[in-house]
Design a protein that fits this description.
Length: 480
Amino acid sequence: MKHKLLNKKKERFIAGDLNPLLILKKNKSNLMHKSLKIIFIALLLITSFKVVFAQDNPLKITGKFSTDQRFRTAKPQSWSWNETRIDLSMSKKFEDKAKFYSNIWFRNIGFSNLTALNQLYDKGQTSPFNIDLQEAYIDVNNFIFKDLNLKAGRQKFNWGTGDKLNPVNTLNPLDLEDIWDFGRYQGSDAMKLTYYLKSLKFEGIWLPFFRPSTLPIGDWAEAFMTIPELPAGISLNSLINHIQMPDLSLKNSSSYGFKSSATIGSFDLALHYTYFYDPIPSPDSNVITFAGSFTKINVNAFQQYIRLHNAGLSFSGELFKFGVWGEFSAFIPLEELNMQTVFGTSVMDSLILENKPWYKYLIGTDYTFKDGSYLNIQYLHGFFHEKGNANLNDYFTIAWYKKFLQDKLKITPLSGSFIVADWKDLGNKYVFIYNPEISFMPNDNTEIGLGVRIIYGKGGSTFATVKDKDEVFIKIGYNF
């Protein structure tokens, strides 16, 4: 069955369905779809405003303006990030029966990387701008019967207790666009039922459509790109990565999850289960051809999204005035994952993942001292994208800050992470990230931050691959 699938891929590639030149032609169609999407969202907003303002209960609008710029410290000290965003939230209650909520990002992001004169006629390229619908749902109380609530629409599920890192939160796809904004998720089109039974809470979630994770933009993408190892004397002429999305059918595109939670004493406890697609693609097969000579090759890499079961638990509470929290999550693949490499008439199989569960876990604590300073320490085994017990790294994070001048000035001299890829070879497989920051709050709504991020490490782990990308960042935020 595997070989038949691979032959179909090869036939499509040879026939031109996967030809990069034809893909470029399809981009015009994609641009049309994006334009229609923006028009649809605008019409939806106008309609929503008309409906909500027609009611006696007014629409509540809150939001945040933020600008975030970063530049590399290494010469030539180029800009690495540029984003100006309006994060707009709207909510409205319809008595005690229902609630409407939406969150939309309007932003200018990226740079004007132009190469042709005709691009100057397209404002979308001279000044990159997009609209991102993060969440939009209706929350209905006492649906069908008392204490049963229904939430339908695009929504996020904040499962887990960890600080920005949550091994049990697997239903929403990750948003890794900004590699340093940990714990950012995309909204999912879903239906959620919540039932309250005294001190117990039960949640059931169904996602009819699969949505993949967004990978980092710019040269940060190198952290998630796998470059194949080549024999001596062979060089890579081109590498094209293809992905295979799940079939858009009720059976093959759906995911679901269940959660039960309760409060026992001073601790909140929860059990989790999900049946989902890993939102980060995994290797499936490679098709290798010569590029005009026997020393250069072209690689067409195919990647797929694998199905997983996930079961976990989480807790949070207070112990001796220390805040404590933890999560444990077991990932169970449906089958082993093999990668096929086709080179001419030869086919080679490589085992990528065994049909065995792997385990991720997290534990953390925080404490506020008498002088007002705050300390947060957390340990995580297994980052978001890591799969298989042999590939899980250890992450230690720490942050300590203190406020001055009636809380107008916040200094964070200790903030960063220490990552270990292999304890047996610690001297060659580790990463150290240090990012101190100073923030000034001239009023209750405004914060101006300045910081630096220093990365150093060895080995081939994710963050070791970006060790030469130290940067200074400047952030301004205003809440309204």
